[in-house]
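Bump. Still looking for CDP-diacylglycerol--glycerol-3-phosphate 3-phosphatidyltransferase structure tokens.
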Amino acid sequence: MNKRHLVDSLSLSRIIFGILFAGSVFYLNGNLIIIFVIYFFAVLSDVLDGKLARRYKIDNKNKGAKVDVLSDFAFIMLSSFALCYVNLLPFWFLIIITLKLMEFFKTSSEGLEYEKFGTLVALMFYALPGIIVLFNFFKIPIIINLMLCIFITVCAIISSGLRIIHKRRN
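Sorry for the wait, here they are.
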């Protein structure tokens, strides 16, 4: 297997981890250990594909970077959908995630273009399923989940505004 395929395989594994995460939420009555093992491996695959892409000097503006972003999106959507299904996240949050991804691709003219605040928002999207599972395990009131979703949504709106302003200046 060549280096590009290894990196892409790690990225694509997040789709499988997303399916496994959702399945464990749906069918295993929220078994925290299994859900967290799956979540851990999804995060690990994301860290490793990034490290390997940098080590092998694989350009982040090519098709591989799109595979990475779409795999992240798939994991985030699958895990968030599962949490919506069991009423731990509001459904409208899935729309926010989708709109943010569409905005990212629409405003990335030549290859993918990252900016710091947008990357932070993406990390929040990525971390939220793990946080929600922990909150549920520790019986933290569900209103906190909603407050987190609202906070992340506000950050996403600010990030989009900054990105659009930046694109207009260039």
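The first helix runs from residue 3 to 27.

Edit: fixed formatting.
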